[in-house]
Amino acid sequence: MSMVDLKAPQLLNLITDASCDEAPGGILAGWLEDDSSSRESACCSEIEFVLERSSTSSDSIRCSSSSTPDSSEADALSVGEAGDICQRESHVCITQDGWRLHISHVFDPTAEAADTPRPQHPVLLVPGLASSGEHTFDLLPDYSLVNALVARGYDVWVADLRGNGHSQKPCLFDRSTWWTVDDHLQHDVPAVLQYVLQATGARQLHWIGHSMGGMLAVGLLSQQGPFAAALRSVTLLASGCFGRGSWHSILAPLITRLTGYGFPAGLVCAAVGSLVGSAAALWFVEALFYMPCNMPQACARKLMTGCFRYIPVGVIRQFLGSLNSKQGLTSCDSSFRYADPEVLSSVQVPVLGLNGSWDLFCPAVGGRQTVQLFGSEAKQFVCLGPQHGTSKRHYGHFDIVSGKHAAEEVYPHIMGWLQQHDAPL
């Protein structure tokens, strides 16, 4: 079944018929490429690839299955207990165009005095479209990537982009306060990076981006501006600059007609969140955000009622107009590709991509295609799903961060990657 053959009602039937233990059969995986041979190679049966330098001048890709890293440290990870040692501070930085952005600093105040080696580079967590950093990465103590990172000794910074989380909000009736994805890249990212680097005294940091937060890192590296060198490593969580096969690519014409003045994501998602666990009919709506069977109800309710904010029409048009195209996400004027193959082929920043096998926002093949563009000798992509032997459960868009089993099935991949590309202080 191709993308053009699949109608919205069929997509919803596929979603509602699925469970965490059923393999989706690669339905989404084959939509990215046009020809059948490319489609076959793009399927998530090729779980992980690592760039290897061959004896010739060209690069080769080795594909293989990959399970969760075997690490005694990962097994001992107690996310909930880590929350007891965390100290949280609120910071504010100002963008060049005058927006006030909130940054949360989370750390273990006793880490510096400890005798054990600690990581050298801070970690910056960047949320996705219309999302709060706190509700994405630090939802509840037992389901917090922030806590897990602090438990490993990392100095953690969580950003809120303009209009979202605790950052400055727009005036809904003043178009001059609306923005696009380009504004995030051109103004928010430099302001946040400069602030964190100055506050920590570090020259580089690890970037972990969820969804659009990962796309911004790719865009930053495609720009090759002054801050590109500040990225020690990049982890793309449920991300990718190519979205063909996603639910929004299928429903794009309808979404465009309904969102002429933007979309009140906060109000709509809060209404859904208030009914989590009580309205079975909303199962398919929840499945657009996470696999309901893989998400604690408390997390699901808090995510839906508090994470999302208003999405300006410029952001919607930029996503629908380019993310789902062959070119992938581009600037509003189409002059710049966020995942520029020519530029990324020479980028050597270590890149890890993690996508869920049932992610309907950012399909796994889009994440794989994005990672594959990098010339980095250290690059890796993992599609999380039982059919690949990489996890016991299927993962959607947000449960890859705060799902019931993310701490044991997802976090070890992240911790291992950071450790591999860091050095003790």
From TrEMBL:
GO biological process: lipid catabolic process
Residue intervals of the AB hydrolase-1 domain: 122-239
Domain of life: Eukaryota
Transmembrane segments: 261-285
A Pfam family it matches: Abhydrolase_1
Keywords: Lipid degradation, Lipid metabolism, Membrane, Transmembrane, Transmembrane helix
Xref: PANTHER family: LYSOSOMAL ACID LIPASE-RELATED
Identification of the protein by name: AB hydrolase-1 domain-containing protein
Lineage, top ranks: Eukaryota, Viridiplantae, Chlorophyta, core chlorophytes, Chlorophyceae
